[in-house]
Each structure stands twice: as structure tokens, then as C-alpha cells.
Amino acid sequence: MFKACFLLLASAFLLSGTAFGQESPFFVTYTHHMEEPGNLEIETSTTSGIPRSGQRSYTAPYMEMEYGVTAQWTSEFYLEGQSSPGDSSVFTGWRFENRYKPLSREHWINPVLYLEYESVNEASRIQKEVEGGGPDLTSRNALLTPEHAHEVETKLILSSDYHDWNISENFIATKNFSESEGVEFGYSFGVARPLARLASCAECRFCRENFIAGIEMYGGLGSTLGFGVHDTAHYVAPVISWAVSDNSTLRFSPSWGLTHESNPVLIRFGYSYEFQGVGTRISKLFGRKP
Amino acid sequence: MTFWAGLVCLASVVAAAQNPGYQPDTSWRASEVATARQNPLASRPEAAAGGRKLFAKNCAECHGKNGSGMEKKHSANFHLPVVQEQSDGTLFWKITNGNANRGMPSFSKLPELQRWQLVLYIRQLREPE
Q1: Residue A20 near chain B (CB below 8 Å)
Q2: Residue B104 sits in which domain range?
Q3: CB contact under 8 A, B109 and A24
Q4: Count: domains in chain B
Q5: What ipTM score was computed for the predicted complex, to two decimals?
Q6: Is residue A15 part of a domain?
């Protein structure tokens, strides 16, 4: 049964068409651009932390599967892990997120509502967002993995396209139901722009139109028990994405920690591949009208 | 026999890859300001070549390689006067916003000038008079 399902899904992917990979370069900040309906994007990324004294170095890989349910609704599923040299490699949990864009047309400011359930443990370091004071960067995995967090995370995403610039702001509120630490807050902002505004007539891989560069800033804002930037992690990060082919994108971002609770440097890499029309093809495989 | 069957099959595929009866959605309307916008690339017709490349990558899947639409996908046929009579500003607005309920995605994530390049290219698909 499992084998049959796998073959069906694999053939749906292989039959998929291509899409022009013009992906946002941000790792943390969300824009209002949703996944196209029926498209599936698979992304593998890593966040590596370079420690200051007393902190542990780590690499936290994660995989995302992003699916465009409708033009205004995108769902994402994550699996994540973490590995620290001299310590251990551990599975740190999963996340399921949904983004909903209430307005179908483009406006000056485009709001998107975000709701995520996280079943992770305290060894999680992917830092898809920073909230509260940021993650514990000093303890050993053996101490952190038994501490489970069942979290519900909400975000208000505001995003604008102004000429060729995208300007996005995210406001985060997270409640961990496994601990009484109140509601934690965080933020992220980003601006990005393609390196070339016009498309050239020839096919090219290294030309400027395939690159989008920008900068993002993100961090924690404490919690209802103590709101503010005191004892919280904050980062500023240049970002760049490169549309390697029509449907795949590479992203890179070095982040600089601005406070003592941050790592001095975070290095982020991501590679995404987009399968077009997966929803339609799966419906067809099951004999349903798309 | 197989040859003729193949030919009939091919002809029906070609016929399906067109939408001769396409009618725009009357409720999908740009504001007056958006309608009046001029194409900033109007004086640079050579930029249409980039529009052609963008079209092949982003649009041909639904609108067909030659832009004549697909009946099955209800997608617009750019050869028709009902599409070509609309202003550059309207076409730009439609590409930017999409009409999600009827299957046209929003392309606001393409840089603004690239969306204008697409408008330039769509103009080249006008049916010869």
C-alpha cells in the first residue's frame, strides 16, 4: 500500500511542469506572496551557529514542504533536527503552519494571518523565528531534548511591493502550552530587491535578473511576564537568493548577533525545488476532476 | 489506420489548446487610475524579447505557447480583440492581481518592469488585421 502511494506521488512529481523560481530571499521574514495553488515546494535548509564563549556550536537542518491549497491559503509542514560537535545529533520535532491572505487583490499593505502548531523540544535551533529571549545556546542536548514544547504561534504579516522592492514586517506571538512562561513575542523586518529589473532575452543562469538581495532583522521581544528587548536575541542578516534553474532556488544568509543572548554569527543555507501542478495531477491520479 | 488515428488525435489536441470563445470576466475590473497607467517600456520595443522568455516560463503552461489560451483551463486567448482592446494599464493590473476564483494566479512577485515586459509581449500576439 505504502509502495503504491509512493509510486503515485513520485509519478505526480515527475510529471510536473516547471515554474520560474523567483523566491523570496528571506529565511525568517514572510512576505504576502503565497505558494501558487496546487504547487508543492520542497526546501532543505540549515542554520549553523558560531558560538561565543560558553555557547555550543551547532548545525540545525530542516526540511519544509510548502503547498498552495488555494491562491489565498498556503500550508507548510516542517521536520527539524540539530547536531552539536562533541555532543549529539537529535531530532527536534515538527511544525505545521498555515498562512491565510484575507484580501485577494494587491494593496499598499497586504496582510497575511499565520497560525502554526509546533511539537518541538528545547534543543530546536533552526530559528525560523526568534521569540521571547531566544533559544538556550549553552545547555547540552541531553538536558534539552526531554523538555517538550507544544506551542501555538501566530503572526501578523504585513507586506508591500513598492516598484521592485518588497518590504515586509512580521509580528509574532507564541504560547507554549507545556510551560507557564506567558505569551512570548518577536518581530522580523525585511527589504529585498532583484539585482536586475528587466528580463534579458537570452537564457542565462548567472545574470543579475536571477538574483534577489536584501536584508532582514529579527529578534525577541520578551513575553507577557516581561516585555522588551532586555535579555533577548537579535540578528541583522543580509540575504541573497539565486534562481539556479526555472524551478530551483539557492539562498544564503550570514546573520550577525547584536546582543549577548545571540550567537555572534548564524550561517543559513537553503535549497528549494518547486513542483508545479501537483494538486491537479494527484486529483487526476485518483480519477477526480481537479 | 494507426497513422490516421494519430492524426485525428493530434488535431484534437491542437484544437483543445485554444480558447476561441474566451470572454473576459466583467467583474474583474481595474480602477480608473490603474487602467490609465502607461507602459514605461512603450518606447523600448526590444524589451518584448525578455517578455517572451518570461511568458514561456510563467504563462505558456496555461495560455499556450502561442498565447491562444486553452479551453480546458478557461485561460485567456491573447489573439482576440476582447483582450487586445484593453489598455496596457488594465493588462498590467490583471497580471499583478490575478483572478484567483477563475484560475489566473497573481504575478506580483515578478518585478514591476518584468510585468510591463509581459504586456509588451502580449501586444505582439495581436491577431493580424
Answers
A1: yes
A2: 29-123
A3: yes
A4: 1
A5: 0.80
A6: no
